[in-house]
Specification:
The protein is of the alpha/beta class. It folds into 2 domains: 216 residues, Rossmann fold (3-Layer(aba) Sandwich); 212 residues, 3-Layer(bba) Sandwich (FAD/NAD(P)-binding domain), CATH 3.50.50. Helix content is 31%, strand content 21%. The strands form 5 sheets. Strands 3-2-1-4-19-18 form a 6-stranded mixed β-sheet, with helices on both faces. A hairpin with a 4-residue loop joins strand 16 and strand 17. Helix 1 crosses helix 12 and helix 14 crosses helix 15. The longest helix is centred in the middle third of the chain and has 17 residues. It is globular, with a radius of gyration of 23 Å. Bound molecules: flavin-adenine dinucleotide. The site of flavin-adenine dinucleotide (FAD) has 34 residues, from helix 1 and helix 7.
């Protein structure tokens, strides 16, 4: 008896679930469905284009995708091409692995002005995600404000200030590469409501900012405390001490010939985006941190900027027919179990936190639960899904198709770049016609 599982989403959490199901040694048939022709979720569309080593994790997912028990259904949007209800009829288990594709909003006056972007859109744009190809942020500006002091904020800042030589071995989308290279940008401001201790950077990402060819990290030494105080776990204490030491090292970076600056502005709460229709600046309130919380001081300052990127967190979209917790932006579940035969993994389960590997235990838990809960199968699985999609003329992109698309991207690569990404779905499908 083969247990038929449909996994919606081909990001890390989807692939770790498939892998755990295969490793169980049980008789399973796993269909991985993604709305994009391209697999791997944020590995392709989120992880920074200059962090190619991180993206290599997809090689392990490829092994899973090529397993004979697995079928990739790319270019199939669940909700449009097929519904969850239908998948519950065709498969014994449905796993929600759809991630958290939208941004938390700034929620301050002026955040609807032209030139304010969420990081999901902005990162998607420079990574060639088809949803954001036409975003067209105006980089003909001398300064940019990034709200947030986590790794996504630092990724966006780094991509904006690296030199063409530093970006040569990346797969940044061509439209973004052209816009960044043409940009007269000199200053990027990163704002954190709380202090350097509370910032969420990991140390590798932070350290990189001190080693850039043409960019100087700037920190007000008065904002750096003598030591890490607060109630942290031993591990966090160590990480924070490392970050503090790195920020101290920034004070020593030789500024000679550096044309750009990234300013780390801590104790700074953006309160208003300034300008008429378009962004012209950001008004910020100075803060104090008390009991781990940022408290406004009533003292304000403004910086001029032509673009604002809000990197303050991601948010999942409610899924039709599935109970959703609007406050936390996740599905309602009991350790991953959502409803009979429906499971959640990754960011839709836990919220948008953690690194790629954090999704692995989710996959293991879901696989275990599926195999515990389901011990007989009456469902037709893949065959019925194929018929349903054929009736609807859905152009399924299977894994071999994706490999052809990838081959075409690699063949089109310029210089040392690993690939030249297709940035819209028609161009990807044209490779297959
Ligand atoms: C900008 C950014 C940079 C990051 N950089 C790093 C890094 O350097 N290192 C690191 O360890 N972690 C990094 N992370 C974190 C890591 O990417 C996440 O932990 C991980 O991708 C979450 O996996 P997921 O499977 O839950 O979601 P996702 O990776 O988002 O995958 C969800 C998938 O579901 C698909 N999908 C969504 N809706 C539907 C639908 N209706 N029908 C069909 N398919 C659908 C999407 O197309 C997508 O492929 C980064 C995250 C971001 C946002």
């Amino acid at each position: 008896m083969t247990i038929k599982v449909a996994i919606i989403g081909s990001g890390p959490s989807g692939f770790y679930t498939a892998d755990s199901l295969l490793k169980s040694g049980q008789d399973v048939e796993v269909d991985i469905i993604d709305r994009l022709p391209t697999p791997f979720g944020l590995i392709r569309g989120g992880v920074a284009p200059d962090h190619q080593k991180t993206k290599k994790v997809a090689r392990a997912y490829e092994k899973t995708a090529l397993n004979e028990k697995v079928q990739y259904f790319g270019n199939v949007d669940v909700g449009t091409n097929v519904t969850i209800e239908e998948l519950r009829k065709t498969h014994d288990a449905v796993v929600l692995a759809v991630g958290a594709p939208t941004d938390r909003k700034l929620g301050i006056p002026g955040d609807d002005k032209i030139g304010v972007f969420g990081s999901a859109d902005f990162v998607g744009w420079y990574n060639g995600h088809p949803d954001f190809t036409n975003l067209d942020p105006n980089l003909d500006v001398s300064s940019v404000a990034i709200v947030g002091v986590g790794n996504v904020a630092i990724d966006a800042a780094r991509v904006l200030v690296k030199t063409p030589a530093e970006m040569a071995e990346t797969d940044i989308a061509e439209h973004a590469s052209v816009a960044v290279q043409k940009s007269p940008l000199t200053d990027v401001y990163m704002f954190g409501r709380r202090g350097p201790i509370e910032a969420k950077f990991t140390n590798v990402e932070l350290r990189e900012m001190g080693k850039l060819e043409n960019c100087l990290p700037v920190i007000d030494p008065n904002q750096l405390p003598e030591s890490v105080t607060g109630d942290w776990s031993e591990r966090d204490q160590r990480l924070k001490e490392r970050n503090l030491a790195t920020m101290r090292e920034f004070l020593e970076v030789e500024p000679t010939n550096k044309g750009k600056k990234v300013h780390f502005k801590f104790f700074a709460n953006p309160v208003e985006v300034l300008g008429d229709e378009k962004v012209e600046g950001l008004k910020v309130e100075k803060t104090l941190v008390e009991g781990g919380r940022a408290i406004g001081t009533g003292e304000f300052y403004t910086i001029d900027c032509g673009l604002v990127v809000a990197a303050i967190g991601y948010y999942s979209i409610p899924i039709e027919g599935v109970p959703f917790d609007l406050n936390n932006g996740i599905v309602i579940h009991d350790d991953g179990r959502v409803e009979d035969g429906v499971y959640a993994v990754g960011w839709i389960k836990r919220g948008p936190t953690g690194v790629i590997g954090t999704n692995k235990p989710d996959g293991e838990i879901a696989a275990k639960q599926i195999l515990e809960d389901i011990n007989s199968s009456t469902k037709a699985g893949r065959n019925e899904l194929n018929s349903l999609l054929a009736e609807r003329n859905v152009r399924i992109v299977n894994y071999e198709d994706w490999q052809k698309i990838e081959k075409a991207e690699v063949a089109a690569a310029i210089g040392q770049a690993p690939r030249k990404k297709f940035v819209n779905i028609q161009d990807m499908l044209a490779v297959l016609d």
